[in-house]
């Protein structure tokens, strides 16, 4: 009851400040825009907005930044569905089913499913944040380096298993991604690796140039090289939001994926990348049409978007309760909190409870605004699919260059993006999956650093990964994720050969 009364006070604080509500709406709009433009992520949106919020009251300033956060994760689905170019790293999985739906003339429906899943994921994350924050944060802190390393490996094996019949190609691409993640300074010794004496590579290969290069450039080049006259798509405009009956058919998928996203957000350094992969994999296993995932199924979109938006509430739990950021955006939010005199940690709720609950109330308000703004805007953005090819793709190519340069204002990043784009284009032509390369690049540093840290703690004993129950279970699941498809394929071939002989 005390929590409810404190939340009610938070809503009253917001209601007494109409200008503050407009600021939250502006934050959500900026977040959606940053997410929808490849290269301009929610992290960048929050970084840009922190100085703008200096003059605002603490609760309104933090609520605005959280609005940017929510909107950014939701907006990443727009280019993922329309152009097969994820606007944010966590939207990579959305491309698997989102873009095929768009090519079938169902772009509006795909965006509708993404929006519903985003709202449900954010709401579940908000509920977890309000009700279970301290308990969940303490549980997450009990995980050690062995568990983090095993979880990163599990995420990689899931991505490889999604390669279908091209399992060997998926494994090779994952290894290429891990190799790329080792470029830069060694996290333990500080020695430079594969930098070729270039100071620009000392910090490693940034994820956004890699993401834009490996996804956007091959897509643009393949579209330009495609022969024939561009076919106009018959875009569905009558209904974007799924009916209540359709949502109920996805109710378990929505709930399961949102909870997975919350869990991934709670564990520091994981975030939406792993959350969306795990949710997609579980949805593919449990849903009736899971075997058809990758061909344009709403369940795939629901799993990815519910998970990466559930991360929002989950990542705020360790931030507010123990002062540990759950992902890169919440790392930025720490600066926003401290600028306004708020010290994240166990005493935050006690010392500044009124401000904290006003922020929590604003989180729910930002979720509602995200829905309203997207319902209006999505009906117009789908028209990008029918723009003339000679206009659309040069504009996209220019946008990739500008977005990449805007990250660090370095022309080197643009060159790196184009080089990785050439790699992605060659891989696409050779029918090698690009997703494992990107996920290897994302999860490689976690896998390497946590594995080495675990070995240092154990004195070089590899048994630490088997003696700790959580890591042992994750390693077993990793083996099953790789071996399982091979066994199933062997059994199918044996059955087919027996049927042919009979």
TrEMBL record:
Keyword Iron-sulfur: no
One Pfam family this sequence matches: TctA
UniProt entry keywords in alphabetical sequence: Membrane, Transmembrane, Transmembrane helix
Domain DUF112: 21-439
Ribosomal protein found in the keyword field: no
Membrane spanning stretches: 21-54, 60-85, 106-129, 135-159, 166-185, 205-229, 257-280, 355-378, 390-407, 414-442, 462-488
Protein's recorded name: DUF112 domain-containing protein
Organism listed in the record: Billgrantia endophytica
Lineage: Bacteria, Pseudomonadati, Pseudomonadota, Gammaproteobacteria, Oceanospirillales
């Amino acid at each position: 009851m005390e929590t409810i009364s404190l939340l009610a006070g938070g809503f009253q604080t917001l209601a007494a400040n109409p200008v503050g509500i407009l600021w939250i709406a502006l934050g959500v709009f900026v977040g959606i825009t940053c997410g929808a433009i490849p290269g301009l992520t929610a992290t960048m949106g929050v970084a840009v907005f922190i100085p703008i919020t200096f003059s605002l009251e603490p609760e309104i300033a933090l609520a605005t930044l959280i609005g940017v956060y929510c909107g950014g994760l939701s907006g990443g689905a727009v280019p993922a569905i329309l152009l097969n170019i994820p606007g944010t790293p966590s939207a990579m999985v959305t491309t698997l089913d989102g873009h095929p739906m768009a090519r079938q003339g169902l772009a509006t429906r795909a965006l509708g499913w993404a929006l519903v899943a985003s709202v449900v994921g954010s709401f579940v994350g908000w509920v977890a944040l309000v009700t279970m924050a301290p308990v969940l944060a303490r549980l997450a802190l009990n995980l050690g380096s062995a568990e983090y390393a095993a979880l990163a490996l599990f995420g990689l094996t899931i991505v490889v298993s999604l390669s279908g019949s091209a399992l060997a190609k998926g494994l090779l691409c994952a290894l290429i991604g891990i190799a790329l993640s080792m470029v830069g300074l060694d996290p333990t010794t500080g020695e430079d690796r594969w930098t070729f004496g270039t100071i620009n590579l000392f910090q490693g290969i940034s994820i956004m140039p890699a993401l834009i290069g490996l996804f956007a450039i091959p897509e643009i080049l393949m579209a330009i090289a495609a022969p024939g006259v561009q076919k106009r798509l018959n875009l569905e405009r009558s209904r974007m939001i799924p009916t209540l009956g359709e949502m109920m058919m996805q109710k378990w998928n929505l709930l399961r994926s949102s909870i997975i996203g919350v869990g991934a957000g709670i564990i520091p350094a994981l975030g939406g990348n792993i959350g969306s992969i795990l949710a997609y994999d579980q949805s593919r296993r449990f849903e009736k049409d899971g075997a058809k995932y990758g061909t344009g199924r709403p369940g795939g979109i629901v799993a990815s978007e519910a998970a990466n938006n559930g991360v929002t509430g989950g990542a705020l739990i360790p931030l507010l309760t123990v002062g540990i950021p759950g992902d890169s955006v919440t790392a930025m939010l720490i600066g926003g909190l401290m600028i306004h005199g708020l010290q994240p940690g166990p005493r935050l709720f006690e010392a500044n409870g009124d401000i904290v609950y006003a922020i929590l109330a604003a989180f729910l308000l930002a979720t509602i605004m995200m829905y309203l703004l997207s319902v209006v805007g999505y009906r117009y953005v789908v028209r990008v699919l029918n723009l003339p090819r000679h206009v659309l793709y040069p504009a996209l190519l220019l946008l990739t260059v500008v977005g990449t340069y805007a990250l660090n204002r370095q022309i080197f990043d643009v060159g790196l993006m184009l080089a990785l784009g050439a790699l992605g284009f060659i891989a696409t032509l050779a029918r090698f999956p690009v997703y494992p390369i990107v996920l290897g690049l994302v999860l490689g540093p976690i896998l390497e650093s946590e594995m080495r840290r675990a070995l240092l703690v154990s004195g070089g004993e590899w048994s630490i990964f088997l003696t700790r129950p959580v890591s042992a279970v994750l390693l077993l699941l990793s083996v099953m994720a790789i071996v399982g498809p091979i066994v199933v394929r062997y059994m199918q071939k044996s059955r087919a050969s027996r049927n042919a002989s009979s």
